[in-house]
Fold:
Amino acid sequence: MDDLLWKYNEYMRLNGCRLEYVLDNGVHIEVLYKEENFAHLIGLHKLKDIQVIQFWKDRTNKTVK
Structure:
């Protein structure tokens, strides 16, 4: 299986989950796993000329096929 697809499937197992860190200084950090964040997390959001990535960034964009 393609490594990227494997990572995506692993990430999707966390879809909808919430992770919360409480640091020693009292700062709270919360992470919400959402499908639309995967491309950004692995750096694909920088590839703006690829239609699949454009759709991932803006699912309301009707010009992306």
